[in-house]
Design brief:
The chain is α/β, with parallel strands linked by helices. The chain contains eight helices and nine strands. A seven-stranded mixed β-sheet has the order 2-3-9-8-5-7-6, sandwiched between helices. Strands 1-4 form a two-stranded parallel ribbon. It is globular. The two termini are 32 Å apart. 38% of the residues are buried.
Length: 266
């Protein structure tokens, strides 16, 4: 199969899983087909599927990965010893682990084509990631508390692992408890990374956005917690602070002590 044939095959298989979708017409345009496939993956409940589907899905996502291009830590400029700052798509990072800002259900975002990091990570990892997370949650028997971390394979992402953490939701004024939970998110991710021999980790901006943690304070806690952890433990892990918006890049520059313009190698 070529990539177009593969995309149509995957859509057809997902449509056939649900009787209510079986009469749905596949749009002729590639862009619309991509959106439909992503939507079907996003709303699919965690369950097994046959190996033929998984093989074609993995081939499809491998080609998508090639289109996007991997970014390794060697492509980035070290801002402080073992600390990096990069603005871009976290699903492109070929590092030891990337951190997913998960919700308490821990099985991803079910909103079709939502632009949150949880949705993006699950989309480009493939449907295996949702099933793996569901198995972890079934074994745990309860929702994931804020401030902890779980680790899974990354499947079709260029990184080795995905570390999932649930950040605090700020409703009303920011409290000391919110700050302690966010600090715990970063520390828990670093601990589980070191326990699994992860040599580099990329953090997203945990709890900002819809979780309403103030961006500036969140970045300050992120940098201070990482530096404190490395100092206390002697960990050699390399840490990338990954941002998507220019305003967050400027905030991290401040807390990393960078005052000149950033010149990435990419």
């Amino acid at each position: 199969m070529n990539q177009n044939e593969r995309r149509i095959y995957l859509i057809e298989q997902l449509l056939q899983e649900e009787p209510r979708y079986q009469k749905m017409q596949i749009p002729p345009k590639e862009e619309d087909q991509r959106s439909l496939l992503r939507s079907l993956m996003n709303i699919r409940m965690p369950r097994e599927i046959d190996n033929d589907f998984l093989q074609e899905q993995d081939r499809y996502l491998t080609e998508i990965r090639k289109e996007k291009g991997d970014v390794s830590i060697d492509d980035l400029e070290e801002k402080k010893p073992d600390l990096y700052l990069w603005k871009g798509d976290i699903t492109r990072l070929k590092v030891g682990a990337i951190v997913n800002a998960a919700n308490s259900g821990m099985t991803g975002c079910y909103q079709p084509c939502h632009n949150c990091i949880d949705n993006c990570i699950h989309t480009y990892a493939g449907i295996q990631l949702r099933l793996k997370c569901a198995e972890i949650m079934e074994k745990q028997g309860q929702e994931e508390p804020a401030g902890q971390a779980k680790i899974t394979p990354a499947y079709n992402l260029p990184c080795d692992y995905v570390i999932h953490t649930v950040g605090p939701i700020v409703e009303g004024s920011l409290t000391v408890k919110h700050e302690e939970l966010l600090e715990s998110c970063y520390r828990s991710c670093l601990e589980i990374a070191d326990e699994n021999g992860v040599e580099s980790i990329a953090f997203c901006c945990i709890s900002t956005g819809v979780y309403m943690f103030p961006n500036d304070r969140a970045a300050q806690i992120a940098v201070e917690t990482v530096e404190k952890y490395k100092q206390e433990t002697g960990s050699l892990i390399k840490v990338i602070f990954n941002v998507f918006k220019g305003i967050d890049e400027e905030i991290y520059m401040k807390y990393l002590g960078i005052f000149e313009n950033i010149n990435h190698k990419l």
